[in-house]
Design a protein that fits this description.
The protein is mainly alpha-helical and 311 residues long. 76% of the residues lie in helices and 1% in strands. The chain has a single domain (2-308), classed as Farnesyl Diphosphate Synthase (Orthogonal Bundle). A two-stranded antiparallel ribbon has the order 1-2. Strand 1 and strand 2 form a beta hairpin. The longest helix is centred in the first third of the chain and has 27 residues, at 88-114. The protein is globular and about 60 Å long. The two termini are 22 Å apart. The model has no long low-confidence stretch (mean pLDDT 84).
């Protein structure tokens, strides 16, 4: 990871001093960097400890694309904070933030093209397309508040899981794994990504200080799994009350708390936890097909961390 840090910083260098100032700020406030870790650990597990320069490039591409999407998300959400720091749009305004996001995206794609990593390019380009479709599908459905469980899982598969799936697929392809194994690792990443998003949904009903305000998904009219389950299991009168609360009273703190209390009482959280653990187990089942190694053990730890994390 230390060697990767050097390569990641180098991948963002520009002749424009403003860009270099901004990218330096981005590097300083990096998050947990789970995605590059997935690239490295999958590469080592499937190749039995092997590693290539292409693996570093794959991890850098993932981190460039992921960072670009976060920068654009903050603009779209009009968010002034990211991981406890000011967001780029808060410091440099929307226009510069959008351009920086575009720059990072192009640097990621060029890193693949310049090194003729076309298999990596295909995986990451597919992920970017799916992430965009997932976001737009969520916006479309949020207006109607008619998301079924199937549509919900399709949204989170595209919006969140597809990038973690890309990490695992790129990790495998970077060490020349065959097509079948790359697809297996993509599926593994997808399962973890879905579990990861359900865990995020559950934070919305938490009373702990976890970095995002309780009830924010309800305020933003996002249909999450605990809420969808509840809507499918209450009386028609209660369902109409919930929908009316989300549409018209989503800024009313007392009303939002009442919705959260109803979701808890109806078993919405228990159901979401159950589904999350199902996806976790499916991911662990894929790992069970590999021989024991320190890399496999680390991936097991990461899968478990995804659902046990507290923020």
């Amino acid at each position: 990871m230390e060697f990767f840090e050097v390569k990641f910083k180098a991948s963002m260098v520009s002749k424009v001093s403003l860009l270099n100032r901004i990218t330096h700020y981005i590097v300083r406030r990096k998050g947990k960097q789970m995605r590059p870790m997935f690239v490295f650990l999958v590469a080592k597990m499937v190749s039995n400890g092997g590693f290539r320069e292409k693996t570093y490039r794959g991890a850098a591409i993932i981190e460039l694309i992921h960072t670009a999407t976060l920068v654009h998300d903050d603009v779209v959400d009009d968010s002034n904070r990211r991981r406890g720091f000011f967001s780029l749009n808060a410091l440099w305004k929307n226009k510069i933030a959008v351009l920086v996001g575009d720059y990072l995206l192009s640097k990621g794609l060029l890193l693949s093209i310049d090194n003729e990593d076309f298999d990596v390019l295909k995986i990451i380009s597919t992920a970017v397309r799916e992430m965009s479709e997932g976001e737009l599908l969520q916006i479309e459905k949020a207006r109607q508040l008619d998301i079924t469980e199937d549509v919900y899982f399709e949204i989170i598969r595209q919006k969140t899981a597809t990038l973690i799936a890309a990490c695992c697929g790129i990790g495998a392809t970077s060490v020349e794994a065959d097509f079948k194994e790359v697809q297996k690792m993509i599926k593994f990443g997808e399962l973890i990504g879905i579990a990861f998003q359900i865990k995020d949904d559950l934070f919305d009903y938490s009373e702990d200080k976890i970095g995002k305000p309780t009830g924010i998904d309800i305020k933003e009219q996002k249909m999450t799994l605990p809420l969808i389950f509840t809507l499918n299991n209450v009386t028609k009168k209660e369902k109409n009350w919930i929908i009316n609360s989300i549409k018209k009273y989503n800024k009313d703190k007392k009303r939002v708390r009442e919705v959260i209390a109803l979701v808890k009482a109806q078993g919405g959280l228990d159901y979401a936890v159950k589904r999350m653990k199902e996806y976790q187990q499916q991911a662990l089942n894929i790992l069970d097909t590999y021989p024991d190694s320190e890399y496999k053990n680390s991936l097991v730890t990461m899968v478990n961390y995804v659902i046990e994390r507290e923020k």
